[in-house]
């Protein structure tokens, strides 16, 4: 029913079923994981009015599991990316996995999925730092694109002494490109969605 993906690792599509409505994926060497993707396989949808709360569990200093709510997957939102790198220090939250005897080792974290009523899911509050912001991703993409464009354009720079006259060729001074680049970066920092206006 579910899958779990960590960059650089094989996709996990077989969850350990620890109760009729609860599933767990092991995440060995969890300290090196920044993001995890949880998704529905598309073979079995949730029953009407149901969805899945997604939890992250890591062992605290005494080896006890600390569970934190990451978010949700539903038939309408069958996949989600969660940032877990900042969650390894903090307090746990209420979770549906407490009474279960889930096998684990001290170096393994877990992703838990609990099938629940959509009404119940709407009342839960995920850990704020777990969600991957689309604005932040957009800003990162734009920054990388600007860097790539500037580096590419700069690689063709020639001095006036190196230029050969060619009436059909148009030259743009490198300082003009640099000025545009700096202005765009400044505006992006002030308002990541400025380009919509």
UniProtKB/TrEMBL annotation:
Residues 136-196 form the Hikeshi-like C-terminal domain. GO terms for biological process: cellular response to heat; Golgi organization; lung development; protein import into nucleus. Residues 6-126 form the Hikeshi-like N-terminal domain. Pfam families: Hikeshi-like_C (PF21057), Hikeshi-like_N (PF05603). One of its GO terms (molecular function) is nuclear import signal receptor activity. It is found in: Cytoplasm; Cytoplasm, Cytosol; Nucleus. GO terms for cellular component: cytosol; nuclear speck. The keyword Transferase does not apply. The keyword Protein transport applies. Keywords: Cytoplasm, Nucleus, Protein transport, Transport. Belongs to the OPI10 family. Forms an asymmetric homodimer; required for binding and nuclear import of HSP70 proteins. Interacts with ATP-bound HSP70 proteins. Acts as a specific nuclear import carrier for HSP70 proteins following heat-shock stress: acts by mediating the nucleoporin-dependent translocation of ATP-bound HSP70 proteins into the nucleus. HSP70 proteins import is required to protect cells from heat shock damages. Does not translocate ADP-bound HSP70 proteins into the nucleus. This is Protein Hikeshi.
């Amino acid at each position: 029913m579910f899958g779990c993906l960590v960059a650089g690792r094989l996709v996990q599509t077989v969850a350990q079923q620890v109760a009729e409505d609860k599933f767990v994926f092991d995440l060995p060497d969890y300290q090196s994981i920044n993001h995890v993707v949880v998704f529905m396989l598309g073979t079995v949808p949730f029953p009407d009015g149901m969805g899945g709360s997604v939890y992250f569990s890591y062992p605290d200093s005494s080896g006890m599991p600390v569970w934190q709510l990451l978010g949700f997957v539903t038939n309408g939102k069958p996949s989600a990316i969660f940032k877990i790198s900042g969650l390894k220090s903090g307090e746990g939250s209420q979770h549906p996995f407490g009474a279960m005897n889930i096998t684990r080792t001290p170096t393994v974290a877990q992703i838990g999925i609990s099938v629940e009523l959509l009404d119940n899911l709407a009342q839960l509050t995920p850990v704020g730092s777990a969600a991957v912001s689309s604005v932040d991703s957009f800003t990162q993409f734009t920054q990388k694109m600007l860097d790539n464009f500037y580096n590419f354009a700069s690689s063709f720079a020639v001095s006036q002494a190196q230029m050969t006259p060619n009436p059909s060729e148009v030259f743009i001074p490198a300082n003009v490109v640099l000025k545009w680049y700096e202005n765009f970066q400044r505006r992006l920092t002030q308002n990541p969605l400025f380009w919509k206006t």
